[in-house]
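ok trying this again, last paste got cut off
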Amino acid sequence: MAGYLIEIDGSSRNNPGPAGIGVRIIGPDGATVKEISRPIGIRTNNQAEYEAFVCALREAGQLPAGPVVIRTDSELLFRQMTGSYRVRHPGIKPLHEAARQLMSVRTDITLELVPRVANRSTDRLARAASGRSGETHPAGPTAEAGDSADSARP
């Protein structure tokens, strides 16, 4: 594998509810460089997916120059970031904008959509973090129901 691979996932219990992110960074040699499992407070699942993506982009900014592939199983995030879907939900808009700004800093980042089964390790990290209901980390807008409306095509 040339470059770095970053796998991401977000999880929310009760959607919205206690949420967490999972990020796994794999080096060019195939070894895991870093794993992040972090509670993010009350969010929807879609917000958690975006927060995992923003975290991954920040981590990518710290990596040496070279290709970085970020893999997600979130079709909504992937389609919104590639322009197939519009972003309508007010709780997603600032996260989408932050992600677009971070992606513009490095032109060697590619986003890939993978099947859910291919994302099990980061799913476990995100679920573990969302289960830490005693911890809250305000890291973005408050959750609002209705993120599924964001999947509307342009």
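PB: full thing came through this time. Residues 133-154 have pLDDT under 50 and may be disordered.
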